[in-house]
Amino acid sequence: MNDYLDLAGQLVMVRLFGTELDAETDAFLRTYRIRGACLFRQNMRDAPQLTRFTGALRDAIGPESLIAIDQEGGAVVRSTWVPAPPAAMGLGAADDTDLAYRTGAAVARAVKALGFNWNFAPVLDLNNNPRNPVIAERSFGADPDQATRIALAWMEGSEREGVACCVKHFPGHGDTHVDSHRDLPYVDKSRTELEQFEFAPFRIAAPHAPAMMTAHIVYPALDPVNPATMSHAILTGVLREQFGYDGVIITDGMDMHAIAGRYGVGHAAVLALVAGADMVMALGTPVTQEETIDAIARAIESGELPMADVEDVGYTTPGPT
Fold it and tell me: How many Å apart are CA 126 and CA 197, to the nearest integer?
């Protein structure tokens, strides 16, 4: 079972608690061979503390560690003492790809100096629902072509500075009036409507984006039962097979109420990996993180999660293009 636990740890990104890497957490990361960590404001005091923390994480996780942050701009920034980047909405309104490129590059320089190598940005959700409580200014606009052009320029700037990006939230969180942090949204549009609108930014970005984050949303026209994060029809059928995407697929936080409150974190993590995700974001407590790792290990041991799929993930680390 220990070998399977090691493999499971490679498929997990965790949230940490506190502002220093304590001995217990260090042992947890090393024991389970955790691949990545995502830091939030609660983990940050100032630049010296944060660079010390990310350095300790790299030492504990190893040379292929993934140290991630959500530094989009606007309201979604974690490191608040570096120059605040403008929100995507402002960049979309400016409609200036050079400005977007320079903004992405500036964000990357700041987070790279703090020890991060992966930024969960830019957003490819379209701003087409005024009742949306969670996207709004995070979107580059409502027109698929224009919003994607600006977002990809932002991403290119980041990647040129050595910080990998992760576009989100596939296949589109723009036309919801429910925040998936709090409940499970539904987007009840036809396949044709989705193809013309929500899908378009991700289809355009597919040849370029090193990673995509999934949405905890049910799209009945694609899968009437499972949210996209756990849908084989969406992650494999649409993203892998239809769009030809060969980058990393990572879930949104599996602690969010859309998932954890309905499916349980361990069971949901396995379903996401079987559906086609490469990595799950275990952002709950240390207890639920261990529950997630144990569930994945048991799925590998039983064959529910094929060993070939697990071994392939070792070659899909996101990185600058």
Answer: 8
Residue 36: phi and psi, rounded to 5, are -150, 160
Catalytic member of 181, 208, 257, 267: 181
Catalytic annotation, pick one of 70, 125, 175, 252:
252
Q: In the structure, what pLDDT confidence band is assigned to residue 22 with cuts at 50, 70 and 90?
A: very high
Q: Which amino acid is at 185?
A: P
Report the b/e string of 261-275 with b at 16+ CB within 10 A.
eebbbbebbbbbbbb
Would residue 232 show up in a list of annotated catalytic residues for this protein?
Answer: no
- The pair phi, psi for residue 73, each rounded to 5°, is 120, 170
Q: Give the global pTM.
A: 0.93
Cα–Cα distances (Å) from 71 to 75, 78, 102, 123, in that order, read 9, 6, 15, 11
| pLDDT above 60 (res 217) | yes
CA distances from 188 to 129, 177, 199, 221, 291 (A): 13, 12, 14, 7, 33
